[in-house]
Amino acid sequence: MKEKKSLHEQYQSRKIHPVAKFPYRFMSHVAKILYYKKFDVHFNVHVDLKPYRDTPYIVIGNHVSRIDYVYLGLPFYPDTLNYVMGYNEIFKSHLNLVLRAMKIIQKKNFVPDLYAIRQMKRVLKEGGRICILPEGMSSISGHNQPSQTGTGALLKAFGVPVFGVKTAGGYLANTKYNLEERPGHVDVDVDLMFSPEDLKSMTADEIQEKIDRDLWHDDYDWNKEHHYRFKSKGIAENMHQLLYWCPKCHTALQMESTKDTLRCKCCGSGVTVDEYYDLHPLNEESVVPDTPSIWFDMERAWVKKQVSDINYRLEDHVRIGTIPKDHLIKNNQSSEITGEGTLTLTREGLKYVGTKEGEAFEFFLPSSEVPTFGMCNDVSRFYTFVDGEFIEFYPDRESTELWDQAVEEIHHLNDGPWKDFPEDHPANRRLTKEFLDSL
Amino acid sequence: MLEKLIEIIVANSEGLDPETITEETDFVSDLGFTSLDIVNCISEAEDLFGKEIPEEELEHIRTVGDVLELLK
Fold it and tell me: Where do the domains of chain A lie, and which CATH numbers do they carry?
């Protein structure tokens, strides 16, 4: 008797074609009803899209939140888009039916994925359009991270027009550190980013660099200028998982957050956060970065300094989660716990020793193969792929963001293929020399 | 068959010496290929040999030999 295929095998054997118009348009209307008024979404289209209607093209955008897909489609309506999404999303029970009907292309982020590339090629060849978010993961900090390796080469090879969509306010409405929806204001700007002629005349590196510059955006900076209110029942709740480092005493993993307050348990320095995401000193001794995203950059600079030590070592006891073979994942979870063990990061790479599915399990990945970790839920867990399998880590300590920054900085330090923003990029001009010298 | 596949691989690269490519050659770690490079090679090989590699096999491809085996 033929063995039944696992869900993974079923979804990896699907041939993706351009999404059918009816389900796509139906879902577009549903998204409009559910989200546009609620989040006060405004569209600004700076290009005449009519000449491109019903022709193949690619839409790319900055990835501000997990619901970007509901913003990205409408400017191109009635054209349909096949969205390229994180591999694991289709295994969530509440999304499975919709994502299959929408013919999403599931992609294993940050690792080679021949399946996803072949589906993108097919959809464009058959006259469809695809939507790619080149950062590979929704923003952790409120600003972009560099686009994934090979994005420039991919767009150049496909050679069809590329539209850029820049979303502002989307992160503040759906932050990474707290899954609460916070209605405020969202601006979506659309323009032609590359014509086929541009792609032909530019090198892959030039294309990639232009993407990282043109799509660069910081939601906190943007709201300093616009001052929109984002309604929340606990604006700072869980913020300590993201801003885990104290800007005054430089201690890590000793921050705590309550409804509107973030403070260091070691030195007492802290902030209160209002519904405009402005930070206010908790007391006279508090050190207050300009914005949460500057704070994030400061702690990254501190991590960069830590990993420069050749003996750097980060270790945590973790539970690990995997994707079930025969059923979908319920309750908005991203994996099911199937083991536990010790996860260790050194300058050489990432090592796990423990169990999985009741058996001994271990692996080692050199740092060149782990550019970053994915976070497909909030900041309480992170994932990577091991021999193609999705493995999610749930650390006992609230240390996810430390793991993420450390693995990225070690990858850069070892000259891994995923490159940081160039030195003259706006992302690298945000910290003062005085602060950097103080580390 | 291997020779033809090596011709395709060389044509999809810049300055690769065909003599250095064997069945054990890893597309990513030995040749520095991106996923797109590999998919392009596979497409051309499929056309040439008149056989399509099923979608579910793609994630198992690491080496030149893996592609050969799937096209036999």
Answer: 7-226 (3.40.1130.10), 239-307 (no CATH), 313-413 (2.30.29.30)
